[in-house]
Amino acid sequence: MPDHPRFAADWARAFAEDPHLAVDWGIVEEIDEPVAYKWLSDHERLWEDGEGRHFAVVSGDDEFLGGINFHSIRPEHNRAEIGFWLAPWARGRGIGSAAVRTACEWGFQQWGLVRIEMTTLPDNEGSLALAEKIGFTREGLLRSRNFERGNQVDIVMLGVLRGELK
Predict the structure, then answer these.
(1) Are 82 and 68 spatial neighbours (Cβ–Cβ below 8 Å)?
(2) By the 8 A CB rule, do 28 and 51 touch?
(3) Domains held by the chain: number
(4) Cβ neighbours of residue 81 under 8 Å, at least 6 residues apart?
(5) DSSP character for 114?
(6) The domain spanning residue 80 has which CATH number?
(7) pLDDT tens digit sequence for 38-50
(8) pLDDT confidence of residue 6
């Protein structure tokens, strides 16, 4: 798990610099340093309980760049869902696609997954482009699937099978 105090400040900074991150995450609360610290602590517990795997994306000189998480892990079905986000200062450099591809490779190898899923909002062009760039296939639109920020929202379902990563 990352160093909480340092990365909590970076999480809060990322959400302050890009308020749309909260929309993409479907959250209403303001992400300040104490909230980010709590999230990091909660993610650590999810790892310990086997309910999720959360990774920090950092540069070679240990600069925080974003996060990747596995959730909805279903070993009995050989699948899991992956999510990711990048801080504004990390975007547009290929970091996200490299990090998500690496995490997917890890998931296929570590857990013997056959399928990794990703969901996003239909207007999240960056996430859709990244997913398709590394081999995910857009599989459909799930109408009114999630209740986020006071509204039912449509969700795009994407999937990649072992051996399909680009």
Answers:
(1) yes
(2) no
(3) 1
(4) 70, 71, 72, 73, 116, 117, 118, 119
(5) S
(6) 3.40.630.30
(7) 877 776 776 677 6
(8) 67
Alpha helices (runs of H) in the chain, residue ranges in sequence order: 4-17, 20-25, 33-48, 95-111, 125-133
Around Cβ 44, how many Cβ atoms within 10 Å? 15
Structure tokens at 159: 């999937």
Q: Containing H/E element for 159?
A: strand 151-161
Instruction: State the amino acid at position 14 in one-letter form.
Output: A
Residue 166 within any structural domain of the chain: no
Residue 74 domain-assigned (yes or no): yes
Identify whether the C-beta of residue 131 lies closer than 8 Å to the C-beta of residue 121. no
Residue 30 CA to residue 45 CA, distance in Å, equals 22
Tell whether the model's pLDDT for residue 10 goes beyond 50: yes
Q: In which domain, by residue range, is 142 found?
A: 4-161
Query: What value does the mean pLDDT take over residues 94-99?
Result: 96
Q: What is the DSSP letter of 157?
A: E
As a whole-number percent, the residues of the chain with pLDDT over 90 amount to 66
Least trusted range by pLDDT, from 25-29, 35-39, 96-100, 159-163 = 25-29
pLDDT greater at residue 40 or residue 95: 95
Angle at 113 between CA 110 and CA 118, to 5 degrees: 110
